[in-house]
Fold this sequence. Notes:
By secondary structure, the chain is mainly beta. The protein has one domain (about 1-175). It contains 2 helices and 7 strands; from the N terminus they run ααβββββββ. The protein has a 7-stranded antiparallel beta sheet with strand order 1-2-3-4-5-6-7.
Amino acid sequence: MIRRLLSGGGGREGARGLVRPVVLVAVGVAGLVAVPATAWASPPDHGTFSSHNVFVDSEVCAPEGFSVDVVEDEVSSFRVFFDRSGDVAFVAVHVNYRAVISANGHTIVERDKWMDTFYADGSARTVGDTVHIQGQGPGLVQHDAGQIVFGADGSVQAIHGPHPQFEGQTFCSALLP
């Protein structure tokens, strides 16, 4: 969740924010090409996408006075589910995310797995282990887990479980000189 949450907020900024537009495009394409054969719901459409990024982030730890080097990999699979009329009912996206983040001679590793579900009315929900960052040794640096429910306007409707990064906490203290 580094790129999406680096700015310290719960928004969907950065490269991770590309998941929603990519999914919405997939939903649109699937909705255009899907023609149900009967009055019953069509079988789900499915696919995968992945990304690999290497970059320097000068913003996430700027308040602490340093930039971080990041190598991130994301592999996602999606399924588009249709209702009986052939319209998209919802899209489920399973995300497997890994980032190696380093600065000042320290390295932390983020391994996250979660599912985003996007509904036809524009609402969404995220369920799973959205942030799991380990430091050098056995230490757990940060952990966001549970469920976040978003309204159709993108506002947060509910948060279940601990989500310190989503609520603005950073991992920068683990990378201090």
